[in-house]
Design goal:
The chain has 461 residues and is an alpha+beta fold. It has helices spanning 21-29, 34-44, 53-65, 71-80, 82-87, 99-109, 114-132, 154-162, 216-230, 248-256, 326-330, 337-341, 369-376, 379-391, 402-425, 441-449; strands spanning 3-4, 139-148, 169-176, 182-198, 204-210, 238-241, 260-263, 275-276, 286-288, 294-298, 305-308, 310-315, 320-324, 349-353, 428-429, 437-438. The chain has three domains: 3-121 and 398-449, no CATH class; 126-267 and 375-380, Nucleotidyltransferase, domain 5 (2-Layer Sandwich); 275-356, no CATH class. The longest helix has 24 residues, at 402-425.
């Protein structure tokens, strides 16, 4: 994999359509799977060991890494590709597992404690990246996407539910326009995958699988808690989410953790268009709308004219949002200037305490360019969803049962983080010759802190 030095740190467009053996070797070495393999070996006990768990785990990963649509396709390639077999410790063609061996392995991988250990692998990978990349996780965006699945038989479903694994169910999502008219309806049978993604680097730092009935706002606290555990303290600065996250509990949670919410507001006012700002009487000319935008009225003109006040900034010590007279700030003449500003060169100043309504008055007001820029970062979640679904098959749709589904999604997220590690660790090409390759400081830090990018012990090169 050759990456130009001018490319971003995580150059996702440089991923190979068909990863080379060298890239696959680096990916496998970048996955800290030691605890999971020990757990799988212990659960097998003294049973038959025709196919070691490390081999089955390697095949499970290769199906995702090599973008095979089915397990059978991956096994067929292993039978004809000796170099690929040697990477995961398969000595000969007749040692390649069968499809039913992989199916049983996926069933086991989706059970506890293996399912939790699978997620811990992802967490360890993100923690390593977060320590090495100083801005990873500063600006996050979240969203939920639909994943298709098939229900298991009744006996298996009962066992899965007893283990705490939700069963696939029917989901429905409606998209409406500004007038509340439904413009699009999406229906599916399966689960929801909730992601928190770094806006700049397009890396998922946390994920959660739920049934289709779980609300995005209800799940966001758990996903945020995972992201905070995976990143250095106080790393998260902003969090962008759609209207599903516009609830008082979510805004209060973000405020407690000093994370600035970038969340579009839900339209709940039916009759009102604006309200008087608390603390101002009927003689005042300061109002706000449902989105929390503050306005002042020019009551001298006939008819009266409403102007949006100039946002000056957020004052964290006071927990207030500061606004200024727009005429003074933008240097134009207002008929109300003498009344409002009373000779002040700076102009009238209004401080809005966030305690009035934390949902209505976020630290970054909605009617600002900064809010729009940060909110546009939510497109990064769509690109990550596209890679997870199109590249690595997280939305397979043919997996039957919650255990196999969780095993597949967990492995896809591990591969996603492994690709990010390899991209950041890769030497960069400078100039026209292949000889001019160098490691960035971040690549050096990853190689020092993380698992060495070399073949794991016990596997052939």
């Amino acid at each position: 994999m050759l990456i130009q030095s001018t490319k971003p740190l995580f150059a996702w467009d440089c991923l190979e359509d068909s990863p080379s053996l060298s890239t696959v070797r680096q990916l496998l070495a970048a996955i800290p799977d030691d605890k999971l393999l020990i757990s799988l070996r212990d659960s097998r006990g003294k049973g038959r060991d025709d196919y070691p768990v490390s081999v089955l785990w390697g095949v499970h990963l290769l199906r995702i890494i090599l973008r095979h649509p089915t397990t059978e396709a991956c096994l067929a390639e292993l039978r004809r590709n000796e170099g690929l077999r040697r990477l995961i410790g398969i000595s000969s063609e007749n040692k390649v597992p069968r499809a039913w061996n992989m199916s049983r392995f996926e069933e086991v991988l989706g059970q506890e404690p293996h399912c939790t250990l699978l997620k811990e692998i992802f967490n360890r990978q993100i923690q390593t990246l977060g320590d090495a990349v100083s801005d990873l996780g500063k600006d996050l965006a979240g969203d939920a996407t639909s994943l298709s699945a098939r229900a298991a038989n009744k006996n298996t479903a009962k066992k899965e539910m007893a283990a705490g694994l939700p069963q696939p169910s029917g989901g429905r999502k409606e998209y409406t326009d500004d007038h509340g008219t439904v413009t699009k309806v999406v229906e599916w049978f399966g689960y929801k995958l909730h992601l928190l993604v770094d806006v700049k680097h397009e890396i998922s730092v946390a994920y959660q699988i739920t049934d289709t009935k779980a609300g995005d706002g209800e799940t966001l606290p758990a996903v945020l808690n995972q992201a905070q555990a995976n990143l250095p303290p106080h790393r998260i600065r902003t969090l962008a989410y759609d209207k599903a996250g516009d609830t008082n509990p979510v805004h209060e949670l973000l405020s407690r953790h000093h994370i600035r919410a970038v969340i579009q507001n839900r339209s709940l006012w039916k009759e009102e268009h604006e309200r008087m700002l608390p603390g101002h009487d009927g003689n005042s000319n300061i109002v706000y709308d449902e989105a929390g935008t503050v306005y002042c009225y020019d009551r001298v003109s006939d008819p009266m004219v409403r102007h949006k006040m100039a946002y000056i900034g957020y004052e964290p010590e006071r927990e207030t949002i500061k606004y200024r007279c727009p005429a003074k700030h933008e240097n134009w003449t207002c008929p109300m200037s003498e009344i409002c500003n009373a000779g002040k060169s700076y102009g009238k100043t209004v401080r809005v305490p966030r305690e009035i309504d934390v949902r209505r008055f976020p630290a970054i007001p909605r009617a600002t360019k900064q809010f729009e820029r940060l909110y546009d970062g939510r497109t990064s979640v769509e690109r990550v969803n596209g890679r997870l679904k199109i590249f690595w098959g997280v939305d397979d749709g043919n997996l039957r049962g919650a255990r196999r589904f969780y095993a597949n999604v967990g492995a896809v997220m591990v591969v996603h983080a492994a690709f990010a590690t390899v991209l950041a660790s890769a030497p960069r090409k400078e100039g026209e010759t292949l000889g001019k390759m160098k490691l960035s400081p971040i690549a050096k830090a990853l190689r020092e802190r993380g698992k060495p990018i070399t073949p794991p012990s016990g596997q052939a090169t």
